[in-house]
Amino acid sequence: MDSFFVDLHIHIGRDWNGKPVKITGSKTLTLSNIFEEATYRKGLDMVGVIDAQAPAVQEEMMDLIERGQAEELKEGGIRYQNTVLLLGSEIEVYDAACSGPIHVLCYFPTMNRMRAFTAWLSQKMKNVNLSSQRFYGTARELQQYVKEHEGIFIPAHVFTPFKSLYGKGVKETLREVLDPDKIDAIELGLSADTDMADQIGELEPYTYVTNSDAHSLGKLAREYQRMALKALNFEELRMALHNQLGRKVLTNYGMSPAMGKYHQTVCAKCLSPAKVNASVCDACGSKKIVKGVKDRIEELESSTQKKERPPYIYQVPLSSLPGVGTRTYEKLIDAFGTEMAVIHEAAREELTAVIPDQVAERITAMRKGTLTIQAGGGGRYGRIQ
Protein backbone atom coordinates (compact mmCIF):
# COMPACT_ATOMS: atom_id res chain seq x y z
CA MET A 1 0.00 0.00 0.00
CA ASP A 2 1.32 3.45 -0.95
CA SER A 3 0.30 6.88 0.30
CA PHE A 4 -0.98 9.66 -1.95
CA PHE A 5 -2.00 13.31 -1.63
CA VAL A 6 -5.63 13.93 -2.62
CA ASP A 7 -7.73 17.11 -3.09
CA LEU A 8 -11.28 16.32 -4.21
CA HIS A 9 -12.87 19.77 -4.62
CA ILE A 10 -11.46 21.97 -7.42
CA HIS A 11 -13.53 24.27 -9.62
CA ILE A 12 -13.18 25.18 -13.29
CA GLY A 13 -13.06 28.96 -13.76
CA ARG A 14 -13.16 28.98 -17.57
CA ASP A 15 -13.72 26.29 -20.19
CA TRP A 16 -11.50 25.88 -23.26
CA ASN A 17 -13.68 28.36 -25.15
CA GLY A 18 -12.97 31.03 -22.54
CA LYS A 19 -16.52 30.93 -21.18
CA PRO A 20 -17.14 30.95 -17.41
CA VAL A 21 -18.00 27.74 -15.58
CA LYS A 22 -17.54 28.82 -11.96
CA ILE A 23 -18.37 32.51 -12.30
CA THR A 24 -16.36 33.45 -9.19
CA GLY A 25 -13.43 31.29 -10.34
CA SER A 26 -10.21 32.64 -11.79
CA LYS A 27 -9.90 32.94 -15.58
CA THR A 28 -6.68 30.92 -15.38
CA LEU A 29 -8.42 28.04 -13.58
CA THR A 30 -8.81 25.87 -16.68
CA LEU A 31 -8.72 22.09 -16.95
CA SER A 32 -5.28 22.06 -18.58
CA ASN A 33 -3.87 24.46 -16.00
CA ILE A 34 -5.27 22.36 -13.15
CA PHE A 35 -3.45 19.32 -14.52
CA GLU A 36 -0.20 21.29 -14.81
CA GLU A 37 -0.49 22.93 -11.37
CA ALA A 38 -1.44 19.72 -9.57
CA THR A 39 1.32 17.67 -11.20
CA TYR A 40 4.28 20.04 -11.43
CA ARG A 41 3.84 22.60 -8.63
CA LYS A 42 1.50 21.28 -5.96
CA GLY A 43 2.52 17.62 -6.10
CA LEU A 44 -1.03 16.29 -5.79
CA ASP A 45 -1.55 12.68 -6.85
CA MET A 46 -5.34 12.77 -7.22
CA VAL A 47 -7.66 15.72 -7.83
CA GLY A 48 -11.43 16.01 -8.10
CA VAL A 49 -12.76 18.51 -10.64
CA ILE A 50 -16.30 19.22 -9.49
CA ASP A 51 -17.56 21.05 -12.61
CA ALA A 52 -17.18 18.08 -14.93
CA GLN A 53 -20.90 18.05 -15.73
CA ALA A 54 -20.32 21.05 -18.04
CA PRO A 55 -20.31 19.82 -21.68
CA ALA A 56 -17.38 22.07 -22.66
CA VAL A 57 -15.25 20.62 -19.84
CA GLN A 58 -16.09 17.14 -21.11
CA GLU A 59 -15.15 18.17 -24.66
CA GLU A 60 -11.74 19.37 -23.50
CA MET A 61 -11.22 16.18 -21.52
CA MET A 62 -12.06 14.03 -24.54
CA ASP A 63 -9.70 16.11 -26.69
CA LEU A 64 -6.84 15.43 -24.26
CA ILE A 65 -7.66 11.71 -24.31
CA GLU A 66 -7.92 11.54 -28.10
CA ARG A 67 -4.56 13.32 -28.51
CA GLY A 68 -2.91 10.88 -26.12
CA GLN A 69 -2.18 13.47 -23.42
CA ALA A 70 -4.57 11.83 -20.95
CA GLU A 71 -5.87 8.31 -20.43
CA GLU A 72 -9.20 7.06 -19.08
CA LEU A 73 -8.59 4.32 -16.54
CA LYS A 74 -10.50 1.04 -16.45
CA GLU A 75 -11.03 1.39 -12.69
CA GLY A 76 -12.28 4.97 -13.08
CA GLY A 77 -10.60 8.35 -13.39
CA ILE A 78 -8.47 10.19 -15.97
CA ARG A 79 -4.68 9.96 -15.77
CA TYR A 80 -2.50 12.90 -16.81
CA GLN A 81 1.24 12.44 -16.22
CA ASN A 82 1.49 11.48 -12.52
CA THR A 83 -1.93 12.83 -11.52
CA VAL A 84 -5.36 11.17 -11.70
CA LEU A 85 -8.43 13.35 -12.12
CA LEU A 86 -11.86 12.34 -10.84
CA LEU A 87 -15.00 13.58 -12.57
CA GLY A 88 -17.27 15.38 -10.13
CA SER A 89 -20.07 17.92 -9.93
CA GLU A 90 -21.08 20.36 -7.19
CA ILE A 91 -24.86 20.78 -7.07
CA GLU A 92 -27.16 23.02 -5.04
CA VAL A 93 -30.21 21.36 -3.51
CA TYR A 94 -33.09 23.32 -1.96
CA ASP A 95 -36.10 21.03 -1.82
CA ALA A 96 -39.15 21.21 0.41
CA ALA A 97 -37.36 19.32 3.19
CA CYS A 98 -34.44 21.81 3.33
CA SER A 99 -34.40 24.78 5.69
CA GLY A 100 -31.95 26.42 3.29
CA PRO A 101 -29.82 25.55 0.24
CA ILE A 102 -27.10 22.92 0.54
CA HIS A 103 -24.18 22.01 -1.72
CA VAL A 104 -23.31 18.39 -2.43
CA LEU A 105 -20.56 16.69 -4.44
CA CYS A 106 -21.33 13.87 -6.90
CA TYR A 107 -18.52 11.87 -8.55
CA PHE A 108 -18.67 9.29 -11.34
CA PRO A 109 -16.02 6.82 -12.53
CA THR A 110 -16.15 7.33 -16.31
CA MET A 111 -16.81 9.91 -19.00
CA ASN A 112 -19.86 7.92 -20.12
CA ARG A 113 -21.32 8.00 -16.61
CA MET A 114 -20.68 11.75 -16.31
CA ARG A 115 -22.18 12.49 -19.73
CA ALA A 116 -25.28 10.50 -18.78
CA PHE A 117 -25.46 12.52 -15.55
CA THR A 118 -25.31 15.75 -17.57
CA ALA A 119 -28.18 14.57 -19.77
CA TRP A 120 -30.24 13.72 -16.67
CA LEU A 121 -29.39 17.05 -14.99
CA SER A 122 -30.40 19.01 -18.09
CA GLN A 123 -34.00 18.00 -17.34
CA LYS A 124 -33.71 19.16 -13.72
CA MET A 125 -31.39 22.16 -13.93
CA LYS A 126 -31.60 25.45 -15.85
CA ASN A 127 -27.95 25.60 -16.95
CA VAL A 128 -25.64 22.58 -16.84
CA ASN A 129 -22.81 24.71 -18.26
CA LEU A 130 -22.30 26.53 -14.94
CA SER A 131 -21.05 25.35 -11.56
CA SER A 132 -23.08 24.81 -8.39
CA GLN A 133 -26.46 25.24 -10.05
CA ARG A 134 -29.86 24.62 -8.45
CA PHE A 135 -31.21 21.09 -8.80
CA TYR A 136 -34.98 20.98 -9.22
CA GLY A 137 -35.68 17.74 -7.43
CA THR A 138 -35.16 16.29 -3.97
CA ALA A 139 -31.86 15.54 -2.30
CA ARG A 140 -32.86 11.89 -1.91
CA GLU A 141 -33.69 11.69 -5.62
CA LEU A 142 -30.22 12.95 -6.42
CA GLN A 143 -28.63 10.49 -3.99
CA GLN A 144 -30.58 7.63 -5.55
CA TYR A 145 -29.36 8.50 -9.04
CA VAL A 146 -25.73 8.71 -7.89
CA LYS A 147 -25.89 5.34 -6.13
CA GLU A 148 -27.66 3.62 -9.04
CA HIS A 149 -24.92 4.80 -11.44
CA GLU A 150 -21.84 3.76 -9.44
CA GLY A 151 -21.17 7.24 -8.09
CA ILE A 152 -19.88 8.73 -4.85
CA PHE A 153 -21.99 11.22 -2.87
CA ILE A 154 -20.44 13.69 -0.39
CA PRO A 155 -22.17 16.67 1.30
CA ALA A 156 -19.89 19.68 0.77
CA HIS A 157 -18.35 22.04 3.39
CA VAL A 158 -21.09 20.92 5.78
CA PHE A 159 -20.71 23.62 8.48
CA THR A 160 -20.30 26.90 6.56
CA PRO A 161 -23.12 29.36 7.32
CA PHE A 162 -24.30 29.52 3.72
CA LYS A 163 -25.31 26.69 1.39
CA SER A 164 -24.31 23.78 3.56
CA LEU A 165 -25.95 20.85 5.30
CA TYR A 166 -25.70 22.09 8.90
CA GLY A 167 -25.24 25.79 8.16
CA LYS A 168 -28.67 26.26 6.56
CA GLY A 169 -29.91 22.94 5.21
CA VAL A 170 -31.27 21.24 8.34
CA LYS A 171 -32.48 22.30 11.75
CA GLU A 172 -31.09 19.39 13.76
CA THR A 173 -30.27 16.23 11.79
CA LEU A 174 -29.10 15.30 8.29
CA ARG A 175 -31.98 12.79 8.13
CA GLU A 176 -34.31 15.73 7.54
CA VAL A 177 -32.88 16.02 4.03
CA LEU A 178 -30.62 13.07 3.17
CA ASP A 179 -30.67 9.29 3.24
CA PRO A 180 -27.83 8.52 5.70
CA ASP A 181 -27.12 5.19 4.00
CA LYS A 182 -26.31 6.91 0.68
CA ILE A 183 -23.52 9.17 1.98
CA ASP A 184 -19.93 8.12 1.22
CA ALA A 185 -18.06 10.77 3.25
CA ILE A 186 -18.43 14.20 4.87
CA GLU A 187 -16.47 17.24 3.69
CA LEU A 188 -15.53 19.39 6.68
CA GLY A 189 -14.86 22.68 4.91
CA LEU A 190 -12.55 25.51 5.93
CA SER A 191 -14.03 26.42 9.33
CA ALA A 192 -14.19 23.06 11.11
CA ASP A 193 -11.84 20.22 11.98
CA THR A 194 -12.20 16.63 13.13
CA ASP A 195 -12.64 17.45 16.82
CA MET A 196 -15.42 19.92 16.06
CA ALA A 197 -17.27 17.53 13.75
CA ASP A 198 -16.94 14.73 16.28
CA GLN A 199 -19.27 16.65 18.60
CA ILE A 200 -22.12 15.52 16.33
CA GLY A 201 -22.92 11.89 17.01
CA GLU A 202 -24.71 11.15 13.73
CA LEU A 203 -21.47 11.77 11.79
CA GLU A 204 -19.65 8.88 13.48
CA PRO A 205 -20.15 6.39 10.60
CA TYR A 206 -18.55 8.62 7.99
CA THR A 207 -15.01 9.32 6.83
CA TYR A 208 -14.06 13.01 6.90
CA VAL A 209 -12.43 14.60 3.87
CA THR A 210 -10.64 17.96 3.73
CA ASN A 211 -10.52 19.69 0.34
CA SER A 212 -9.48 23.06 -1.02
CA ASP A 213 -12.71 24.24 -2.74
CA ALA A 214 -10.22 26.01 -5.01
CA HIS A 215 -11.43 29.01 -7.02
CA SER A 216 -7.91 29.81 -8.27
CA LEU A 217 -4.79 27.81 -9.12
CA GLY A 218 -2.92 28.98 -6.04
CA LYS A 219 -5.64 27.58 -3.77
CA LEU A 220 -5.19 23.97 -4.93
CA ALA A 221 -4.14 21.89 -1.89
CA ARG A 222 -5.27 24.61 0.51
CA GLU A 223 -6.75 21.57 2.28
CA TYR A 224 -6.14 17.94 1.31
CA GLN A 225 -5.56 14.46 2.71
CA ARG A 226 -3.01 11.71 2.53
CA MET A 227 -4.62 8.38 1.64
CA ALA A 228 -3.43 4.79 1.71
CA LEU A 229 -4.24 3.27 -1.69
CA LYS A 230 -2.86 0.45 -3.84
CA ALA A 231 -3.27 2.55 -6.98
CA LEU A 232 -4.67 5.87 -8.16
CA ASN A 233 -8.20 5.37 -9.45
CA PHE A 234 -11.87 5.86 -8.63
CA GLU A 235 -12.46 2.43 -7.10
CA GLU A 236 -9.47 2.75 -4.77
CA LEU A 237 -10.88 6.08 -3.57
CA ARG A 238 -14.28 4.50 -2.94
CA MET A 239 -12.66 1.81 -0.79
CA ALA A 240 -10.65 4.40 1.13
CA LEU A 241 -13.77 6.40 1.97
CA HIS A 242 -15.25 3.22 3.47
CA ASN A 243 -12.03 1.96 5.12
CA GLN A 244 -12.01 -1.26 3.12
CA LEU A 245 -9.09 -3.69 2.68
CA GLY A 246 -6.51 -1.35 4.14
CA ARG A 247 -7.47 1.63 2.00
CA LYS A 248 -8.15 4.66 4.18
CA VAL A 249 -7.48 8.31 4.95
CA LEU A 250 -4.18 8.47 6.82
CA THR A 251 -4.06 12.20 7.65
CA ASN A 252 -6.23 15.25 7.06
CA TYR A 253 -4.38 18.49 6.36
CA GLY A 254 -6.33 21.71 6.65
CA MET A 255 -6.37 25.23 7.93
CA SER A 256 -7.03 25.69 11.62
CA PRO A 257 -10.76 26.34 12.07
CA ALA A 258 -9.76 29.73 13.44
CA MET A 259 -8.43 30.57 9.96
CA GLY A 260 -11.84 29.95 8.41
CA LYS A 261 -13.74 33.09 7.45
CA TYR A 262 -16.90 31.82 9.19
CA HIS A 263 -15.37 30.44 12.38
CA GLN A 264 -16.74 32.89 14.96
CA THR A 265 -20.03 34.79 15.13
CA VAL A 266 -19.54 38.38 13.98
CA CYS A 267 -21.37 41.41 12.68
CA ALA A 268 -21.59 41.17 8.88
CA LYS A 269 -21.16 44.94 8.56
CA CYS A 270 -18.22 45.83 10.83
CA LEU A 271 -16.88 42.28 11.50
CA SER A 272 -16.86 42.81 15.27
CA PRO A 273 -17.34 39.65 17.36
CA ALA A 274 -20.97 39.18 18.40
CA LYS A 275 -22.98 36.97 20.71
CA VAL A 276 -24.63 34.08 18.93
CA ASN A 277 -28.19 35.17 19.81
CA ALA A 278 -27.60 38.91 19.49
CA SER A 279 -30.25 40.84 17.55
CA VAL A 280 -27.99 43.85 16.92
CA CYS A 281 -24.24 44.51 16.88
CA ASP A 282 -22.98 46.20 20.03
CA ALA A 283 -20.30 48.00 18.02
CA CYS A 284 -22.27 49.49 15.10
CA GLY A 285 -25.93 48.66 15.63
CA SER A 286 -26.29 46.52 12.51
CA LYS A 287 -28.88 43.76 12.62
CA LYS A 288 -26.89 41.51 10.27
CA ILE A 289 -25.23 38.91 12.48
CA VAL A 290 -23.50 35.92 10.88
CA LYS A 291 -23.54 32.85 13.13
CA GLY A 292 -20.10 31.24 13.28
CA VAL A 293 -19.37 27.58 12.72
CA LYS A 294 -18.14 27.16 16.29
CA ASP A 295 -21.45 28.37 17.73
CA ARG A 296 -23.54 26.39 15.24
CA ILE A 297 -21.78 23.14 16.16
CA GLU A 298 -22.36 23.84 19.85
CA GLU A 299 -26.08 24.16 19.06
CA LEU A 300 -26.04 20.80 17.29
CA GLU A 301 -23.81 19.00 19.80
CA SER A 302 -25.04 15.52 20.63
CA SER A 303 -23.42 12.34 21.89
CA THR A 304 -19.62 12.40 21.76
CA GLN A 305 -18.16 10.04 19.18
CA LYS A 306 -15.85 7.20 20.15
CA LYS A 307 -14.54 6.49 16.65
CA GLU A 308 -10.77 6.66 16.21
CA ARG A 309 -9.96 9.22 13.53
CA PRO A 310 -6.86 10.04 11.47
CA PRO A 311 -4.83 13.00 12.76
CA TYR A 312 -5.88 16.46 11.56
CA ILE A 313 -2.79 18.61 10.97
CA TYR A 314 -3.21 22.39 10.75
CA GLN A 315 -1.64 23.87 7.64
CA VAL A 316 -1.97 26.84 5.31
CA PRO A 317 -0.95 27.13 1.66
CA LEU A 318 2.80 27.56 1.38
CA SER A 319 2.38 30.98 -0.24
CA SER A 320 0.29 32.15 2.74
CA LEU A 321 3.13 31.77 5.23
CA PRO A 322 4.66 35.10 6.35
CA GLY A 323 7.96 35.49 4.55
CA VAL A 324 7.03 33.31 1.57
CA GLY A 325 6.59 35.89 -1.16
CA THR A 326 6.70 35.17 -4.88
CA ARG A 327 10.51 35.02 -5.10
CA THR A 328 10.88 32.79 -2.03
CA TYR A 329 8.10 30.51 -3.24
CA GLU A 330 9.79 30.07 -6.62
CA LYS A 331 13.11 29.33 -4.92
CA LEU A 332 11.45 26.57 -2.92
CA ILE A 333 9.74 25.05 -5.96
CA ASP A 334 12.98 25.20 -7.98
CA ALA A 335 14.88 23.50 -5.16
CA PHE A 336 12.39 20.80 -4.12
CA GLY A 337 10.02 20.37 -7.07
CA THR A 338 6.56 20.67 -5.50
CA GLU A 339 4.75 22.13 -2.50
CA MET A 340 4.16 18.65 -1.10
CA ALA A 341 7.92 18.02 -1.17
CA VAL A 342 8.61 21.33 0.61
CA ILE A 343 5.94 20.82 3.27
CA HIS A 344 6.41 17.11 3.95
CA GLU A 345 9.86 15.99 2.80
CA ALA A 346 12.54 18.70 2.85
CA ALA A 347 14.76 18.54 5.94
CA ARG A 348 15.26 21.69 8.04
CA GLU A 349 18.89 22.01 6.96
CA GLU A 350 17.86 21.65 3.32
CA LEU A 351 15.34 24.45 3.74
CA THR A 352 17.81 26.82 5.39
CA ALA A 353 20.19 26.32 2.48
CA VAL A 354 17.57 27.97 0.28
CA ILE A 355 15.55 30.35 2.48
CA PRO A 356 16.07 32.37 5.69
CA ASP A 357 16.06 30.43 8.94
CA GLN A 358 12.96 32.27 10.20
CA VAL A 359 10.93 31.14 7.19
CA ALA A 360 12.22 27.57 7.53
CA GLU A 361 11.09 27.66 11.16
CA ARG A 362 7.57 28.63 10.07
CA ILE A 363 7.47 25.73 7.61
CA THR A 364 8.54 23.24 10.29
CA ALA A 365 6.04 24.76 12.75
CA MET A 366 3.34 24.25 10.12
CA ARG A 367 4.32 20.58 9.82
CA LYS A 368 3.72 20.22 13.54
CA GLY A 369 0.46 22.21 13.49
CA THR A 370 1.83 24.79 15.95
CA LEU A 371 1.28 28.06 14.05
CA THR A 372 -0.44 30.81 16.08
CA ILE A 373 -3.71 31.93 14.50
CA GLN A 374 -5.96 34.98 14.91
CA ALA A 375 -9.55 33.84 14.37
CA GLY A 376 -11.62 34.86 11.34
CA GLY A 377 -15.34 35.36 10.94
CA GLY A 378 -18.11 36.98 8.93
CA GLY A 379 -16.41 36.44 5.60
CA ARG A 380 -12.92 37.46 6.71
CA TYR A 381 -10.22 34.80 6.95
CA GLY A 382 -8.13 34.40 10.06
CA ARG A 383 -4.42 35.08 9.83
CA ILE A 384 -1.10 33.79 11.12
CA GLN A 385 0.32 35.91 13.88
UniProtKB/TrEMBL annotation:
Chain segments annotated as transmembrane: none
Domain of life: Bacteria
InterPro entries xrefs: Pol/histidinol_Pase-like, RuvA_2-like
Protein name from the UniProt record: TIGR00375 family protein
Organism of this sequence: Halobacillus litoralis
